[in-house]
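Thread: "does anyone have the structure for this chain?"

Original post by V.I.:
We have the sequence but no experimental structure in hand. Need at least a predicted one for the grant figures.
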Amino acid sequence: MTRFRRLVVSTGLALALVGSAEADQLVFDPSNYAQNLLTAARGLQQIQNQITSLQNEAQMLINQAHNLANLPFSSLQSVTSLFTQIQNLVQQAQHIAYNVQAIDQAFTTQYPKSFTAATSDLQLIALAKQRWTNTIDGFQDAMHVQAGVVQSLSATQTQTGSLVSHSQSATGALQAMQATNQLLAIVSKQLADLSALLASQGRAKALQAAQDAAAQAQAQEQLNRFLTRAQGYQPQTVQMFH
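Reply from O.Q.:
Generated one for you, tokens below.
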């Protein structure tokens, strides 16, 4: 009886070991395991692709932010101020200003093409003095504009250097565009200065030429008056005392 029990137990253990081995073989399937690894690898690759896509989108947003960033420097206020100073100097033109109606009126009264007998000698002298004053003041106005332009050169040079420096270190398209626009504003200001300078110099020369023409006409009138007066020129007789 004891031997039979031992045989049964031994047989049971052997069957159990065989069943356990077969069970282990059924749980671990190499092909299934490989398929699972491939699926996991593909999932991991998809996650990596998504991460890369998110990184690219983040970089694109950063680049857009750089492109939309404003230039941390502005010279427009200074340029506008300098432009206003030159404009004020031009508008301070004395006597005959830059106005078509005022010019026509002044030339009609002060620079006539000819003089009549109704104009007295005192009026001729007063007109000549007024024309001379206009010419002197015209040259003074031109020199004021010249001084204003020269004084603004230093500020313009400083602004240009700052803008060039900021444009070279611009981090985006907007900053580069803003720097370019400000440089164009400085160029426009310099062209305006040149226009004001030429206008003031031309005005001074025109007043001088008008004075010369009017002086010639007045001299002719005075000569005619001298020659047509009733008495004319009478040489004085010097009496000798003995």
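V.I.: this helps a lot. Confidence is low (pLDDT under 50) at residues 238-242.
O.Q.: and The first helix runs from residue 2 to 27.
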